[in-house]
Amino acid sequence: MSALLDTTVLDAAIAAVPVVAVIRHTDAPSAERIARAAIEGGIRVVEITFTVPGADALIARLRADHPDVVIGAGTVLTPDQLDAAADAGAVFAVAPILDEAVAARAAERAVAFIPGAFTPTEVARASRGAAAVKLFPAAGLGTAFVTAVRDVLPDVRLMPTGGITAAAVGDWLHAGAYAVGLAGALGTAWRAGGAADVQNTARIAVAAATAERNPA
């Protein structure tokens, strides 16, 4: 990421609501409904993964319809996908791994890059020039891992994702996370009760984040 890249918009949205809705579905209309329901539930940062058919088109639609929401791309594994995300207006791009070619293209296109990592060594390497580092899959690591990594790498912004429930969001933030990615919980909610359950799950996550960041 270029040193001149301005991440103010992303940082402001995360500061307000440190929850990222990760939209992953093989059916494009369902993915769009999940994304819109998460926004209606109060989430202000949405990641459309490239496992969604027509992900770039959905990014562009959501950007047009919700200018107050920060829209990015996920599961960005190739420079071509990064270009497609940038062309669609993605503010940020997330990957489950660190790929140097993708990171370089993100810097060229002025897209905030959030690569994935699992070990402290991977976290340190991935953090160089990155907007944040995605801890994935986070559930297997636990909140104590976030605290331990932050103790030795205090300047690294961590975004744990994978296996996190809406109610547990506050625990991960308390451990030191910069933001929390909510992925499977949204898919589970969609299968259980459609858009209404997705909205409710988003509200629970937002409330948990708010309670942690602004205790009574």
TrEMBL record:
The record's subunit annotation is:
Homotrimer.
Annotated Gene Ontology MF terms?
(R,S)-4-hydroxy-2-oxoglutarate aldolase activity
Q: In which pathway does it act?
A: Carbohydrate acid metabolism
User: Pfam families attached here?
Assistant: Aldolase
Against NCBIfam families, the record matches this protein to:
eda
InterPro entries under this entry? Aldlse_KDPG_KHG, Aldolase_TIM
**Superkingdom assignment:** Bacteria
Q: Does the keyword Mitochondrion apply?
A: no
* EC class name: lyase
Designated gene of the protein: kdgA
Return the protein name: 2-dehydro-3-deoxyphosphogluconate aldolase / 4-hydroxy-2-oxoglutarate aldolase
Question: What is the taxonomic lineage of the source species?
Answer: Bacteria, Bacillati, Actinomycetota, Actinomycetes, Micrococcales
